[in-house]
Design a protein that fits this description.
The protein is α+β, with helices and mostly antiparallel strands and 152 residues long. The protein has one domain. The protein is 59% helix and 12% strand. The protein is built from four helices and three strands. The chain has helices at 6-29, 63-79, 88-111, 128-151; strands at 35-39, 43-50, 114-119. Strands 1-2-3 form a three-stranded antiparallel beta sheet. α1 runs parallel beside α3, α1 (6-29) runs antiparallel to α4 and α2 (63-79) runs antiparallel to α3. The longest helix has 24 residues, at 6-29. It is globular, with a radius of gyration of 16 Å. The model has no long low-confidence stretch (mean pLDDT 84). Its EC number is 3.4.23.36. This protein specifically catalyzes the removal of signal peptides from prolipoproteins. InterPro entries: Peptidase_A8. It comes from Candidatus Segetimicrobium genomatis.
Amino acid sequence: MIGFPWVLCAAGVLGFVAGQAGTWGAMHLAPAGGERVVIPHLLSLGLVANRGLAFGLLRHLPPLATTALALTVIAALFYNRSAWPAGPAAQWGVGLVIGGAFGNVVDRLRFGYVVDYIDTHVWPVFNLADAAVVVGASVLVVATLAGRRGGA
């Protein structure tokens, strides 16, 4: 990446703010202990305390351990930044991953768990920060593969 990575920063801020705004909104819109149906049989809001990592994995670990693990993954991303493709798509991808991850870290520090609230009834309950991580990782993979194909 040449110069200051403005695209990466913008994507990171977007992923972080979306995750935090989504958590705030869900905590105010979803009834305690219940769910608010948005689209019947397709989409509901309901609060779930995710004490583990992705999909509730390693939920037996204390909050400090899962927070430290998430911060380690973020640090590894920064450590390996020379391996990132340089284009704007890759910067969007990395930024969304980092912003979403930081959003979940903030939840862990504030509540001791990540607040998940989007229920599609066919997938584990997740939040907007998780969506930013998944979308960002997908964009980064596509950008990386496209860069390798273009360079070959």
